[in-house]
Amino acid sequence: MDLLIDNKSGLPIYDQIYSQIKAQIISGDLQQDEPLPSIRGLAKDLRISVITTKRAYDELEREGFIYTVAGKGCFVAPKNVELLREENLKMIESYIEKIAQLAASCNLSRDDITEMIGLIWEEKP
Questions:
Q1: Contact 42/55 with Cβ under 8 angstroms?
Q2: Is the sign of the CA dihedral 72, 78, 80, 84 positive or negative?
Q3: Cβ distance 30 to 67 under 8 Å?
Q4: pLDDT at residue number 85
Q5: Where would you tag: which of 31, 51, 90, 107 has the fewest CB atoms within 10 A of its CB?
Q6: What residues have CB less than 8 Å from 36, skipping those under 6 apart?
Q7: Which long-range contacts (CB under 8 A, 24 or more apart) does 89-94 make?
Q8: Which residues are CB-contacts of 75 (< 8 A; sequence separation ≥ 6)?
Q9: Does residue 51 surpass a pLDDT of 80?
Q10: If pLDDT is split at 50, 70 and 90, which confidence band does 26 have?
Q11: Maximum separation of any 2 CA atoms in the chain, in Å
């Protein structure tokens, strides 16, 4: 599992860990029941506080992306299709907001954007 911490990003370190692990689970890079590094081990590898790593893992567990087995560690939870759908919908909404902002700055109408999406959609295999 590859995690990169960017001290210049402005995002809290726990949020960077949380976001990257979550993205790897959603993309399938981390598979169901795959063990995650121990909290202490990950903290040591990233040279950060154990508390920071624990906070990221706690958030992932609270949202259903990982589960903990006492004495064994943390593992990738079985994919909850509805949870993944909701995550994807949030991502789509975020992209649409960015598209709307860019379109407004270029004086594009809603019809222009709809036409562009239609053309792109038709090109899909």
A1: no
A2: positive
A3: no
A4: 82
A5: 107
A6: 1, 21, 30, 42, 57, 66, 73, 74, 75, 76
A7: none
A8: 33, 34, 35, 36, 66, 67, 68, 69
A9: yes
A10: confident
A11: 58
